[in-house]
Amino acid sequence: MHTKNSKPLPSPFRLSTIGDKQLLNIENKTELKMKKYLTSTMRFFLFVLGILIIDTKVLANEVNRIYRSADFLGRGHAGIANPNQEDSLFYNPSNLSGKSDSTTTAEENQTDQSTMTEPIAKDDFFKKAVILSPLFTLSQNASQLTSAGSDSSKTLEALRDLVGKPVHAGFDSFSGVILKNMAIGAVLSGNVNLYVYKDSNNSGVEAVKIDGSQNQVLSFGYGDRVINDNLQIGGTIKYLNRTQISADVSIADIQAIKDFNLTNFQNQGSGLGADLGTTYSTNWKWNPKFALTIMDIGDTQLDFAEGKTVNGDPIRQTINIGVAAKPDINHFDTELFFDIRDLEGRDEPVGWKRLHLGASIRRWQLGLNLGINQGFGTMGLFYEAKLLRIDIGSYGEEVGQRVGYRPSARYFFRLASSF
Questions:
Q1: Is the CB of residue 234 less than 8 Å from the CB of residue 97?
Q2: What residues does 397 pair with on adjacent strands?
Q3: Within-domain flag for 5
Q4: How many domains in the chain?
Q5: CA 404 to CA 419: how far, in whole Å?
Q6: Over the stretch 14-29, which tens digit does the pLDDT of each residue have?
């Protein structure tokens, strides 16, 4: 130690002291660089590890919806601000109070305005009865499994070719009666999702994850208009019986796959649920509508059996907002849609996957739906006659957490009979 009265050290010692400080600074800087490098490297490996964890645990992560509409599939799964009559029960019950319907063509509107007939058919007590409306959905790669047949070697080969590719099959059918301000309907629906992945917990051996559900639903809805007919309010009460399926099997055990029985990997439960919808109509240009819906208020709880291999899940509450607008295009009935679904992120934690864009264009009995669903283009063509409607199209679902990570390209076909 040096005091104020101490003599300065000889110059060689001063140089040595300065050199030690410089060496200490260099060592400190090197240590800091090493720490930054190790921190960055650790973050990188944690990031990669996170991807691997997602890849093995969040497989075929798709919401098992109660009902899917061909109209919505074709237009990016958007349109809660103005669903058609039967779809209102499951997308926005406030539209049950609507005096006009999104399926009304431009020619029909012109006819109504020119004849000035009161009351028009759309305001009659009885509006529509849907006898059957079976909708089939199938992923593009599902044929790889069906072509394998019962041959074990072909089945294994087909499964290995499907690593990282989601497979989907689904069915939805609505039957019901739509009256003025109310509707009652029944739905039979089901879907199965299959995903083949390499199990990091089992030396990278391929495994098959299967999940899905089967639903029987009875629903009643009512809607009315308030505040100068600009505000629509509606609600739905539904009884749901669901069979939930979930299984994870290693394809190394071919015997387990051959003897696979879904009854060993399912659970059944039933319960009551409720939905609420509101829509506000404006007189602005293009007549935009703004909608807010709360589906499965407070979560729809189902009485699944305890002690089963599969623990049944409740149907979680979702809050959704949407906008619809009708631009003026000569000779065409056109409508644009924008929805943000599941604002709370209960079912879909990835924000961008909640965005849905769509458009519907009609001319006479023909129509075209276009949209964007989870970053993928959608398209639907339909022909609607007095007693029959046919829909055909394609859409995409992103089962992963970013566009192109785990895409599932799908086709749909619906044949509906109504009067």
A1: yes
A2: 408
A3: no
A4: 2
A5: 42
A6: 444 445 555 556 556 5
**Cβ pair 412, 137 in contact under 8 A:** yes
Q: Quote the domain boundaries for residue 23.
A: 10-57
Q: Is 60 left (phi over 0), alpha (psi -120 to 50) or beta?
A: left
Residue 398 one-letter amino acid? E
**314 preceded by a cis bond (ω within 30 of 0):** no
Q: Is residue 223 in a domain?
A: yes
Is 413 a domain residue? yes
CATH, residue 360: 2.40.160
Element of type H or E holding 197: strand 182-199
**Residue 257's closest CA among 140, 168, 166, 154?**
154
Let me know: does 222 contact 184? Beta carbons within 8 Å.
no
CA distance 378 to 339: 15
Rounded distance between C-alpha atoms, residue 222 and residue 386, angstroms: 25
Instruction: Render pLDDT for 169-221 as a digit per residue (tens, 0 to 9).
Output: 999 999 999 999 999 999 999 999 988 888 777 777 788 888 899 999 999 99
Give the number of other Cβ atoms within 10 Å of residue 290's Cβ: 14
Q: Determine the pLDDT at residue 39.
A: 54
Residue listed under structure tokens 């305001």 = 123
Nearest Cα residue to 87 out of 58, 42, 115, 128: 128
Distances in whole angstroms, Cα of residue 410 to Cα of each of 40, 73, 139, 170, 281? 40, 10, 4, 10, 34
Residues 47-60, mean pLDDT to the nearest whole number:
39
Map residue 5 onto helix, strand or coil.
coil
41 has a pLDDT exceeding 60? no
Say if CB 211 and CB 249 are below 8 A apart. no
- Residue given tokens 């000779």 in the structure block: 331
In the structure encoding, which two tokens stand for residue 253, read together?
């055990």
Length of the chain: 419
What are the residues whose beta carbons fall under 8 Å from the beta carbon of 112, sequence distance 6 or more? 120
| 352 in any annotated domain | yes
Judged on CB neighbours under 10 Å (0-12, 13-18, 19+), 379 is middle
pTM: 0.77
Number of Cβ atoms within 10 Å of the Cβ of 247: 18
